[in-house]
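User: Can you model how adenosine-5'-diphosphate sits in this protein?
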Amino acid sequence: MSAPVLVVNAGSSSLKYSLVDAADGTAAASGTVERIGEDSGVLTHRGPDGEHRSERRVADHEDALRAALDAFAVHGPSLADVDLRAVGHRVVHGGATFSAPALVDDALLEAVTRLMPLAPLHNGPNLEGLKVARRLFPDVPQVAVFDTAFHQTLPPRAFTYAVPHGWAEEHRIRRYGFHGTSFAFVSRAAAGLLGRPADDVNLVVLHLGNGCSATAVERGRSVDTSMGLTPLEGLVMGTRSGDVDPALHAHLHRELGWSLADIDTALNKRSGLRGMTGENDFRKVSQMRAAGDERAALAFDVYCYRIRKYVGAYYAVLGHVDAVVFTAGVGQHAPAVRSAALSGLQRLGIEVDEERNQRAGDRPTVVSTDTSEVAVLVVPTDEEWEIARQAVAVVESQS
Ligand code: ADP
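Assistant: Here's the modeled complex, given as structure tokens:
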């Protein structure tokens, strides 16, 4: 490994890690510690000799990272033999403070703490991950890579909500956008596939995973994105509603007496595909639809129609589009979504080649016809590699 980086993604009850070579994206090992803080935790480690699963109580994030380090020691590769260049951390919310990845120091920890109110469910555990890794790897540079940073190029007209002026200044109410690490990776890879420099192409990028968001990329810079203050806004997702009438909260509270917390949970955890069909996994929804389930058919339509609306909106935002790019689990592996979202758009210069579309998936692929003015691309995302690459770039810029 020429530039080994330990990538850490600390969630509320889980910690994901991988040992990635920033030079080529290969992962020598990866794993997940789940059910942190519960009676029994589960560690899954994938190393040189396959997958190992073990169960034991994992008290907190420090315990989780220690369990991961034990797994490296027992199953390999030995971290003692690897000259780690950095530990790269995924941090969800960088607010308006961070427009680039940054070295972790006391000031950064304080800044991330101040951002907690904007994303309490994410930044809290992320902060724990930063602190714990600093303790366990005191001699390795720690770098925070923010999901929001790529969208700090949004112009004020795109990030400002039409709400009283003071809200933005006093309470930091504005659109931030998320999935930035994925958008950065995919935009560059898409430009590469088109054979052009990243700062030369305009793209509409659709990240369709469990969470889904769309971004308008102008000459390599994000100029609009569908997620907002929080990751709830925009496209239909596995369990999140995406766009709803903002008066829905008041209506549910008034009519049903639900608390704000109930409504927040319902829109974040029990809506989207799950709300419409009972299943949040797109594969299951597809199976139900194929078996004639009407709710699943409607959910598929709603999901694709919302994507189509954002493609149209961002086409207008950009004026000229070089490519529409699909990525993440659904974006890469569901050709039916790509065709449903983009069918009948020849007048916009968008023509999907059905045969190419059906075959695409694991590699960067062009799925438009040779005569399509706008290319349609499938580009697998790799957030771990992007975090590793950004972490090394920060470390090198310091030396
Ligand atoms: P995350 O946002 O958690 O990183 P992924 O990018 O892995 O998620 O995407 C998860 C989604 O992708 C799930 O809804 C899953 O059903 C869907 N998905 C994965 N593989 C396929 C497939 N072969 N066909 C359709 N959907 C798929």
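A couple of observations from the model: Residues 209-211, 238, 281-283, 286, 328-330, 333-334 surround adenosine-5'-diphosphate (CB under 6 Å). The chain has two domains: 7-146, 195-383.
User: Helpful, thanks.
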